[in-house]
């Protein structure tokens, strides 16, 4: 069954790659004016952290905004499109090396994918002000979850590698919601880790579940963002290529790293970005559609 799951993931990755490369090639002479060097560095660093379990969405959003490498409105789409290929690679790695009960794995992967598909169609059409507000709140919640894990407020989990009954239903519903929130720029890792712990599963199981969920949902969500043009093409291409290198460096070469210190730094950056996003949303005064029509006339 695992071979079938991985084969489907490979097909999804191929489908996304074709759509993404076709769109990038079509607009190669209309790329954004951000820096190839800067977005490549951001892609490498964030994917390096991602493979270590720290996550890339929060750090990616923070760095893109801090270094002014993307318009706030298209950051959600950029994160989904840019990290799609790297996360698929991570999905292959972790679903292969860590065992999860088949029904639980398939159920949670499916629910997250459906949630992302339905969510992307809404998020890609939201205004900059709404995106700023959603991301500000989402990043703040992510920081709180990370902080709770660091100070020991979150449950330590159990030994189970699968779920059944009401716990499985809760997991499926929760992962559906987390999949939809992924399209708003909130990473699934920390919430999924919390979900696994609260349901009494082994902490190790969180890795194939969260990487697998993201690997399946991101191609579906990302294709919609690509078709809407709601993403930064240059940053996404850098994340997709240079970012993969960061994953292999973190996975295969790094033996010891002060993860604890890095996590505290990430929490600080995420909180800063959350506050910055919320302040921008409060200051952003959108022009009513009827006024826009008058100006265009």
From TrEMBL:
Membrane topology per record: Multi-pass membrane protein
PANTHER family listed in its UniProt record: MEMBRANE TRANSPORTER PROTEIN HI_0806-RELATED
TM spans (from-to): 37-64, 76-98, 104-124, 131-148, 168-198, 205-223, 235-254, 261-282
Domain of life: Bacteria
Stored InterPro entries: TM_pro_TauE-like
UniProt-listed Pfam families: TauE (PF01925)
GO cellular component, one term: plasma membrane
The protein's name: Probable membrane transporter protein
Compartments reported by the entry: Cell membrane; Membrane
Keywords: Cell membrane, Membrane, Transmembrane, Transmembrane helix
Family according to the record: Belongs to the 4-toluene sulfonate uptake permease (TSUP) (TC 2.A.102) family.
């Amino acid at each position: 069954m695992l071979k079938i799951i991985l084969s489907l993931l490979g097909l999804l990755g191929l489908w996304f790659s074709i759509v993404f490369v076709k769109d990038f090639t079509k607009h190669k002479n209309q790329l954004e004016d951000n820096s190839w060097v800067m977005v490549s560095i951001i892609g490498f660093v964030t994917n390096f952290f991602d493979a270590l379990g720290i996550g890339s969405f929060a750090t990616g959003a923070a760095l893109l905004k801090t270094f002014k490498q993307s318009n706030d409105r298209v950051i959600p789409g950029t994160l989904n499109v840019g990290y799609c290929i790297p996360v698929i690679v991570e999905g292959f790695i972790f679903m292969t090396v860590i065992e999860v009960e088949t029904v639980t794995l398939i159920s949670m992967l499916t629910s997250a994918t459906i949630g992302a598909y339905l969510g992307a169609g809404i998020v890609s059409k939201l205004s900059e002000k709404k995106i700023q507000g959603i991301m500000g709140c989402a990043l703040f919640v992510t920081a709180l979850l990370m902080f709770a894990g660091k100070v020991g407020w979150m449950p330590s989990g159990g030994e189970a590698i699968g779920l059944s009954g009401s716990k499985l239903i809760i997991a499926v519903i929760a992962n559906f919601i987390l999949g939809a929130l992924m399209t708003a720029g909130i990473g699934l890792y920390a919430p999924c880790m919390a979900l696994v712990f609260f349901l009494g599963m082994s902490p190790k199981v969180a890795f194939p579940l969260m990487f697998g969920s993201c690997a399946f949902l991101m191609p579906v969500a990302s294709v919609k963002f690509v078709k809407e043009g709601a993403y930064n093409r240059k940053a996404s291409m850098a994340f997709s290529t240079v970012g993969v290198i960061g994953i292999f460096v973190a996975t295969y070469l790094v033996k010891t790293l002060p993860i604890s210190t890095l996590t505290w730094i990430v929490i600080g950056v995420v909180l800063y970005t959350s506050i910055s996003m919320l302040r921008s949303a409060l200051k952003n005064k959108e022009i009513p559609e009827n006024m826009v029509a008058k100006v265009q006339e």
